[in-house]
Structure formats: C-alpha cells, structure tokens
C-alpha cells in the first residue's frame, strides 16, 4: 500500500490550506497516521457478508454512483471501498481534516466542504469529480447531524449529473461506539460485518427544486430500511447488538 503524498482534487489544489495551530497540526499528523494504521490493521480481520435488497443492483459495485451512508459507518466503509478512487466530501473543519487525511491514505479523493461550511463549492467539486468518471461518497447526515437525518445535497447532485444514488449500511457484530453525536463505530478485530445495499435511486434531470422532495424522502426511507434490516439480521445471527 502506497505511503506517497495523498491524492487531491483540482478543487483542493486551488485553495489555501486551512490555518491550524502548531498543536492542531501535530494532532492531525498523529491522528491521521494512527487512524490509517487502525483501518489497515483491523479492516483485514473483518468477516464480510453482502446483502442486496430485492430490486437492487446486480452486484455490490456500481460505478459511477453517488454513494450515501450514515456518518457513524465511516470506519468500516473506508476499508470496504478503499483504493477505488471514490471522491468524498469532508467537512472544512478540524474534525473533517483528520478524517480527510485518513481516507486519503486509503485511496480516496477528498473535496472539502459540507452542508454548513463551503457547501456550494464542495458540491461543484463533487460534480466535477463525477464528470471525470469517479464515484462520489457522502456521509449524508454529516458533519454534525442530526444523526440518521439525510441532507439534500446528494439528491441535487444526482439530478444535475444523471448518476444514480447508491445507499448502503454496514452493521457490525462487535464495535467500540464513541460517545459522539453520531455514535461513531470502530469495529473490533474479527467482528462480522454485514453490508446491505439498497435499490438504486434515479433522479430525473428535468425536475425543478420544488419537485425533489419525493426523491429526498426516498433516500431517507431507503437508508432507514436497509439500516434496520442489516442490524436486525446481525442481531438474529449473533444474538448481539450490531
């Protein structure tokens, strides 16, 4: 696995690096490498199972796609979809920066911005990545919640690009759950991991803003449905909470 300089997008190369204090820069360096090592060491031990709901895609891999999932699943998703050149929107904040550094080392492209900071610029950056043939990934309830409430940016992007929305959820047999707004999951080594993929959602390109709500509702319903199905299946198979 390469340890060369992380890939960046054209969007990133045109802006200045965020201003961080010396202490923050040291923290970013340490957390970035520790996070990458954790993903690299724990990821290969996970025991994966994939389920695609009825009417879903023929296989797990759909390209290009706008991939959406809940923020708490960043760790297992980073390992599962590593080194596929997927562009991911990360928050233009200190927290977003260390996540960006971890996932860049795992072969993702990053576009800085979020629904609260630099959102329009970041969506334009993601649009550019899709035009260049990359898939795009969104933690759709990020960067700070509310947990399990889908934001609207990916639906708008799907309308503008014609690329389908791909919803997925990863349930874990055993995980450390952080006391954060998203209940962030770090899988324990050798845990079972169940990836459930929903039906693709296609948003017509001729809709105006007022006509997008049914597709936003469909994204929310799909993510809720596959999360509950995956977690219930994991509970039934292991007798433990995912």
Commentary on this structure:
By secondary structure, this protein is α/β, with parallel strands linked by helices. The protein has helices spanning 10-13, 22-42, 74-80, 94-105, 119-131, 153-161, 213-238; strands at 47-52, 66-69, 87-90, 109-112, 136-139, 165-172, 175-177, 185-187, 192-197. The chain has one domain (19-238). The strands form two sheets. The chain has a seven-stranded mixed sheet with strand order 1-9-6-2-5-3-4, with helices on both faces. The longest helix is centred in the C-terminal third of the chain and has 26 residues, at 213-238. The two termini are 30 Å apart.
Basic shape: globular
Radius of gyration: 17 Å
Structural class: alpha/beta
Number of helical segments with 4 or more residues: 7
- For the secondary structure, the number of strands is 9
- Could you estimate the helical fraction of the residues in percent? 25-40%
Spans of at least 5 consecutive residues with low confidence: 1-16
User: What's the N-to-C terminus distance?
Assistant: 30 Å
Sequence of secondary-structure elements:
HHEEHEHEHEHEEEEH
Overall number of structural domains: 1
Largest sheet: 7 strands, mixed
Described by its quaternary structure, the protein is single chain
- The strands making up the biggest β-sheet line up spatially as 1-9-6-2-5-3-4
Proportion of beta-strand residues:
15-25%
Integer average pLDDT: 89
Question: Secondary-structure map with pairings?
Answer:
Elements: H1 10-13, H2 22-42, E1 47-52, E2 66-69, H3 74-80, E3 87-90, H4 94-105, E4 109-112, H5 119-131, E5 136-139, H6 153-161, E6 165-172, E7 175-177, E8 185-187, E9 192-197, H7 213-238
Parallel strand pairs: 1-9, 2-5, 2-6, 3-4, 3-5
Antiparallel strand pairs: 6-9, 7-8
């Amino acid at each position: 696995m390469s340890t060369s300089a992380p890939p960046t997008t054209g969007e990133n190369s045109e802006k200045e690096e965020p201003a961080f204090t010396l202490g923050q820069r040291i923290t970013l360096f340490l957390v970035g490498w520790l996070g990458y090592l954790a993903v690299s060491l724990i990821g290969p031990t996970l025991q994966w199972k994939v389920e695609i709901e009825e009417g879903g895609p023929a296989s797990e891999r759909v390209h290009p796609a706008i991939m959406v999932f809940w923020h708490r699943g960043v760790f297992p998703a980073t390992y599962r979809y590593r080194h596929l050149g997927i562009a991911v929107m990360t928050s233009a904040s200190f927290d977003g920066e260390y996540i960006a550094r971890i996932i860049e080392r795992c072969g993702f492209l990053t576009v800085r911005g979020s629904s609260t900071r630099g959102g329009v610029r970041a969506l334009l950056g993601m649009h550019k990545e899709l035009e260049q043939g990359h898939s795009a990934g969104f933690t759709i309830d990020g960067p700070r919640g509310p947990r399990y409430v889908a934001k609207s940016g990916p639906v708008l992007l799907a309308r503008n690009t014609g690329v389908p929305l791909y919803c997925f959820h990863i349930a874990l047999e055993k995980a450390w759950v952080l006391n954060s707004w998203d209940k962030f999951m770090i899988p324990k080594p050798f845990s079972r991991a169940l990836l459930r993929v929903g039906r693709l959602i296609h948003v017509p390109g001729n809709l105006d803003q007022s006509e997008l709500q049914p597709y936003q509702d469909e994204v929310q319903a799909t993510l809720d449905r596959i999360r509950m199905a995956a977690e219930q299946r994991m509970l039934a198979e292991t007798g433990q909470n995912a």
